[in-house]
Amino acid sequence: MIESDGLTKRLGGRVVVDDVTFRCEPGTVTGFLGPNGAGKTTTMRMLCSLSEPDGGSARVLGGRYRDLPNPGRRVGILLDASAQHPGRRGREVLAVSAQVMGVPEPRVDEMLDRVGLERSAGRKRVRQYSLGMRQRLGLANALLGEPEVLILDEPANGLDPEGMRWMRSLLRDFADRGGTVLLSSHLLAEVEAVADQLVIIGAGKIRAVGSRDELLAGAGTLVEATDAAVLQAALERAGLRATPTGSGSFIVDAKPEHVGRAALEGGVVLRRLGPSESAGLEQLFFELTSGAGGPEHPAVAAAAANHDLAESAR
Amino acid sequence: MSATTFPTAATPLDPATRDTRPTLARLIAVELRKMVDTRAGLWLLLATGGLTLLIVVVVCITGEATDQTWARLTEAATLPASVLLPIIGILLVSSEWSQRSALVTFALVPHRGRVLLAKLLAGVGLAIAAFVLCIAVAAVATAVTATTAPGQWSLSLAMLLQILVNVVQGMVMGIGFGALFLASAPGIVFYFVLPIAWSIIGEIDALTGVAEWLDGSKSLDPLTDHLMSATEWARACTTLLVWTALPVVAGWMRIRREELK
Question: Is the Cα dihedral B40, B46, B50, B56 positive or negative?
Fold first, then answer.
């Protein structure tokens, strides 16, 4: 369980995190999405008592992180894979953490195996590691103490597609066994496949919170015709709001059935018709994070309303 | 909360450690380990050991008989330690910030003061260990040279204590400077340059009175030279307060507030 309650942080006179509220339940993976500089890292640092909030509070496993007697055994953290002494051997990095936590040393080698780092890689100094290897080492470090909660900042950075798939299944498995996962990313594609819940942040403010399915369902219908202009005219006549995606297709704020009927009446041949899924979410993400304005997309308002309902029901 | 655990590997973890705070002794052991598990740390220690042996051998071969007593050799043997160990102290704190491993350190132990205390005690422990080794090396050297100088084996406890204070103060001052600057290069440079600069300024006539109390090259020099008088102790302690205690306290305050990069 992770709870962020109105977290606010000012750095150098600028509000970098502004009243951020969300919670992550056991058994779920929460994707924390936002462009670089949106305040993800600062929020995560406040969750881990590494940065003092100027307002609001953070709770991990029901209390403040800093009050956990041996945090490494309850919460696994990877905040920056590059933040390691380059002159230390990979295995030694884990051995030091294991010693702090009181975890037996054989576990270090098991964790290296677990994240797919060879023994020979463990003997190398971190200086020689690629970013992908550092991510794996950081993940091993986070998993070392058999935690119940994982907090990972941009863990997919530097991983190859195979590594990304591997990490997704690891996180899914962790959550399915009752663990709580919060992972951040500036790329929607990285989290979309694994996250149950999405928290989207832009310019320090929460832009949308909701389950992945909620946000996807509300994102409308993706439609593409042989003749884009005719389709657009048909949709307009039917009174449907359509947004061009730029590749000749449109995202329509309506059910596929209604869009199909409009196309039929307009006499236009469709190439694609269906729930917009990622295309919609991607656009949503883009809109939310690029514009400085508040929630505009209907899906966000809906998701926000759902979120409020869920909140008041508690 | 339910006590669900996530067995991810064969080695079972003791559930009791989930809620057991790491002891200060364990944190000190970890900090001692960090001093030697990086290339920089290891080479500094090896260099210290090598230089110590070199100096002792040189004194044994070329020194006057009066220098070849256990006491004099011990004093000579601690010279490398008193100069190089502080660098290990500086790096022990500053590297956590310049290499940003502080993110992991403070995530595992979210009490920065406790980590700094462990570093201080580990540094003092290393200084004491180095000192004991120096006495042993000096003893071997004394036995080997076997001159007939009077009082060859006499070693005053008070003198030993003074030499120990000299070695430990360097280490603590190093850790203080590391904490104050939180960057390796400035920490090391200012550790060596500031005292020299102050010595030069102290040459100004109007300041010689102050320099006697605050210039380490004057007030700390007797520590390794002769048994000190009460006045000399007062001067040494004043210097220690300003050059050692003050950086440690200021550095501790900085570390408590500093945002991690």
Answer: positive
| Per-residue pLDDT tens digits of chain A, which is 314 residues long | 999 999 999 998 899 999 999 999 999 999 999 988 899 999 999 999 999 999 999 999 999 999 999 999 999 999 999 999 999 999 999 999 999 999 999 999 999 999 999 999 999 999 999 999 999 999 999 999 999 999 999 999 989 999 999 999 999 999 999 999 999 998 888 888 899 999 999 889 998 898 887 777 666 788 889 888 899 999 999 888 888 877 778 888 888 888 899 999 989 999 888 877 666 667 667 766 665 444 444 444 444 444 444 444 44
User: Looking at beta carbons, which residues of chain B come within 8 Å of A45?
Assistant: 260
Closest chain A residue to B118, measured at CA: A100
pTM of the model: 0.85
Residues of chain B with pLDDT under 70: 1-9, 147-149
| Residue found by looking up tokens 């909140």 in the block | A311
Residue A148 forms contact with B (CB below 8 Å): yes
Contact B110 A50 (CB under 8 A): yes
Quick one: tokens of B41? 């740390």
Residues 6+ positions from B233 with CB-CB distance below 8 Å: none
Other Cβ atoms less than 10 A from the Cβ of B259: the count is: 12
| Residues A54 and A15 sit within 8 Å (Cβ to Cβ) | no
Q: Which two tokens stand for residue B174?
A: 């190093």
Distances (CA, A) of B128 to A62, A167, B44, B247: 43, 47, 16, 21
What distance separates the 2 farthest-apart alpha carbons in chain A? 71
Q: Report how far residue A239's alpha carbon sits from residue A13's, in angstroms, rounded to the nearest whole number.
A: 47
Rounded Cα distance between B166 and A5, Å, is 51
3-class SS of residue A193: coil
The pair of three-digit structure tokens given for residue A300, joined into one six-digit string:
């966000």
3-state secondary structure of A251: strand
Q: Which residues of B touch A93 (CB under 8 A)?
A: 104
Q: Which ipTM score applies to this complex? A: 0.89
List of chain A residues whose C-beta atoms are within 8 Å of the C-beta of residue B4 = 26, 148, 177-179
| Buried-exposed string B30-63: b where 16+ CB fall within 10 A, e elsewhere | bbbebbebbeebeebbeebbebbeebbeebbeeb
Neighbours of A68 (CB within 10 A): 20
Q: At what angle do helices B39-62 and B112-145 cross, to 10 degrees?
A: 30
Per DSSP, the three-state class of A54 is coil
Compute the half-sphere exposure of residue B4: CA atoms within 13 Å on the CB side of its CA.
Answer: 18
Residue A66 CA: distances (Å) to CA of A47, A63, B5, B52, B106:
9, 8, 21, 43, 10
- The tokens of A96 are what? 């030091």
Nearest in space to A262 (alpha carbons), one of A294, A290, A235, A233: A235
Nearby residues of B161 by Cβ (< 8 Å), 6 or more positions away: none
